[in-house]
Amino acid sequence: MMQDDTVQNSLTVDELCAEASRRTGLTDFGPDGFRKPLAMLADHLSSPLLTENGRAALRDDLIVALVGRLIREDEWKKNPEWRTRKIDRPLVICGIPRTGTTALHKLLSVDPQFQGLDHWLTSWPKPRPSRAKWPQEQGYQNALAALEKLFEMVPQLRVSHDIVADEVDECLEILRLDFIANRFTSIYIVPEYDAWFQSQDETPLYQRLADTIRLIGLNDDRTWLLKNPGHFGHLDELFTAFPDARVVITHRDPVKSLGSLGSVLAGPRQMFYDDPHLEMIGRRELAYWTQAKKATDATREKRQEGQILDINHLDFHRDPMQTVRNIYEHFGLTLSDEVATAMVKWLAANPADKHGAHSYKLEDYGITADQVRAGLGEG
Which of 29, 165, 254, 260 has the most CB atoms around its CB within 10 Å? Predict the structure, then answer.
């Protein structure tokens, strides 16, 4: 959503909510549990550490999430039949960031047997209209404007993590509507919020994720294809919301994945802070994903055999279509010749370096290869 110049630099929770209501004409934000984490994030708006770009980005992030809450509550009321929708055996991709989750997600989304969380609908949740109507949708127009502004501020994101309004995106974009999300603490330097966030039980958030998916797919019976690196470490919560989920976990040399992640997060930090403290990024992310790996390893022992499939990033890079075939065979999915051909065409049109080469050095982010391997092993 485009920045509104009438919004002040520093706002209270009530002022942020009032601005979101002004933009939508709606007032029901749902349960009040969101107000505490929102207040913690809103306090950071007055931080002298932020640049004007950083302050504008955080302010917009908060207001866009509040707008999403308002729209979702309103659409739930308008469409009560969402409660009866079943989500059967969704295919879910996760893994430590920068292990190929996005490329695999977008490749699989070529298959029309799947439906996903289209980016624009993550911030404007409603029953998905026909694609021909998207250009006339206010939520779609807002998403286009917001992405244009984001890439103007942080152009290197197109190289490391391109986002498109009418393509599938991460569940994280839905989870952020409750302001309990790794998205905020990865981008902004908010250690008090981070400590609080990591102590929360995310089970209720995953239930709201499922309910939001029921709303968006209200008129669509296709299988859900979901992706979020953060599900790695929260598989218990995921399986509580989606007991029969089919989960693909991607793996890569963690030295490379953490180095690449550091580079992705450094872009916004350098634009949003006069002193971005890049060394904090690696330390925080290593600790966070080490704990996530421990939680995932514990969950594996409790799940039925065959419900989780591991994919190696190198194998996917060398032969992506064989990886796709392995996934389909493992989970009993049908890959038609027509869809396989479409996937091959997509791969040719979307090489890894489509927007330029992505280079990075792990040491720039305050950690060493030995520390990464001590926490995350070999990948």
Answer: 254
